[in-house]
Amino acid sequence: xxxxxxxxxxxxxxxxxxxxxxxxxxxxxxxxxxxxxxxxxxxxxxxxxxxxxxxxxxxxxxxxxxxxxxxxxxxxxxxxxxxxxxxxxxxxxxxxxxxxxxxxxxxxxxxxxxxxxxxxxxxxxxxxxxxxxxxxxxxxxxxxxxxxxxxxxxxxxxxxxxxxxxxxxxxxxxxxxxxxxxxxxxxxxxxxxxxxxxxxxxxxxxxxxxxxxxxxxxxxxxxxxxxxxxxxxxxxxxxxxxxxxxxxxxxxxxxxxxxxxxxxxxxxxxxxxxxxxxxxxxxxxxxxxxxxxxxxxxxxxxxxxxxxxxxxxxxxxxxxxxxxxxxxxxxxx
Length: 333
Hints:
5% of the residues lie in helices and 41% in strands. By secondary structure, it is mostly beta strands. It has a single domain (2-332), classed as Tachylectin-2, Chain A, CATH 2.115.10.20. It has a 5-stranded mixed sheet with strand order 1-6-5-3-2, with no helix packed on it. The protein has a 5-stranded antiparallel sheet with strand order 4-7-8-9-10. A hairpin with a 5-residue loop joins strand 2 and strand 3 (62-66). The longest helix has 14 residues, at 10-23. The two termini are 14 Å apart.
């Protein structure tokens, strides 16, 4: 399966990793190097996707949930060919409409599998609004119409300095559950989750800051994903602007920490709470605004899922593999 995702730029990526291993040098990819980024790997079928999240089921099937009316579901048996598989809420989700102004469009799901069932965190909001909420649903199969509404996890309004969209569940090395979230305003936050319920902890209600862009006029950082690997927690985020078709400027950034709660720093040692972030993937050629990433540890590699826009402005599913250099930093190939 790895070969199907390789491009001509894989040779350069391997050379980079080898050179780093031999010399100990650290090479930083910047926006100026965007022409060297690989194109998305080959995908077929139902590839119209926005804000993808993916989990591999116990039987090896891939389940993808993404932004859409009542939350859209897709499946694949090989990570290449994708088919539509209905929606999470065929009858609608009336508990969300107070946040969506009556719309059925639900955003930025995060799907994972724990304790014999699927957990789905998702957002309800309207564009540009701080009146937002994150809800939880569970299912034993992940199929359309089998999901149970478990309740409100966290919400935001003008009374706080953050925005509760773009959730991502992380389980730390000690088995504790955490939910990261955030978009614009004061950036990316983290709260503790009770693993028995999947809802917010009642004993630890702290809202911890993970990343922000204080020197950016827009404060454009969102879509957090925390990936644990090799003693590090890697925080992937999306900088700049989504949802503008071929004019989108989304790009994938990364920092890391020895603790799930931070502090996170980029490759140059700049704190993510001070605007830091090492660029991992940016627009190039006919790939515009790649972002709202998900990271899946799979049997052949760690895999990066994201959406991007074509020249026509259509949102499409992007998939690439993640490599790791000698210094423990990811690169895309």
